[in-house]
Amino acid sequence: MLSIADLHVYYGGIHAVKGISLDIAKGQIVTLVGANGAGKSSTVRAVSGLVKSCTGSITYEGHGNILGKAPEEIVRTGIALSPEGRRILPHLTVEENLQLGAYIRNDTQGIAKDKEWVYSLFPRLKERAWQAGGTLSGGEQQMLAVGRALMSNPDIVMLDEPSLGLAPKLVNEIFAIIKHINSLGKTILLIEQNAFAALSIAHKAYILETGTVVLEGTGQELLHNPEVKKAYLGG
Questions:
Q1: pTM listed for this prediction
Q2: Which structural domain range is residue 155 located in?
Q3: To pair with 178 at 20 to 30 A between CA atoms, which of 12, 51, 81, 83?
Q4: What gap in Å lies between CA 63 and CA 22, rounded to an integer?
Q5: Per residue in 151-173, pLDDT tens?
Q6: Number of domains in the chain
Q7: Which residues contact 94 (CB under 8 A, 6 or more apart)?
Q8: Is there a domain that residue 66 lies in?
């Protein structure tokens, strides 16, 4: 469905991603795991058109090579990003943030239906529909960021560090919802530092270190890999 080949990403003199290649099959949860600076976020930013200094190719089924396209064009092809740090608009309400996620759409009935679907996934958002986004808790803001990404009705949802800064109970809740979204047919590219949680739900996983892929396999294979256990799972 999505194939990344020999991707290099640069920020000025910094070579953040060094020729990685990976494949995301339709209907899968694929996770990229690694420490800060491993190149995980740079990879999804390249896919979503947010960084321009890139070489290689990102081929999306039916759309050819999308590398270098504008972010709006990427969203229109069916790829949405819930970014690291949530990046909701704090002065807009929950409802308005969700409406913003559907900015590429003009199917009023479909938008209304998807908004109710998001509210069914995250009941707390419905309770706070007219509350300013900036007044929500960290966990609620994360739910809003995921919900906003879903409002574009994407085929691929990229989630960048959805568990960052959340209490363990909320982490479990977020990952259960990710599995549920995937069960409804959405393909997911998951970026995570919480290796155990990510590998536990992933169909396929890649371990990144300093901009390169050092290991790949199924989530379960890497979850039980001695090297991964030692480096990311506390032995």
A1: 0.92
A2: 25-41+81-232
A3: 51
A4: 17
A5: 999 999 999 998 888 888 888 88
A6: 1
A7: 125, 128, 129, 130, 131, 133, 136, 144
A8: no
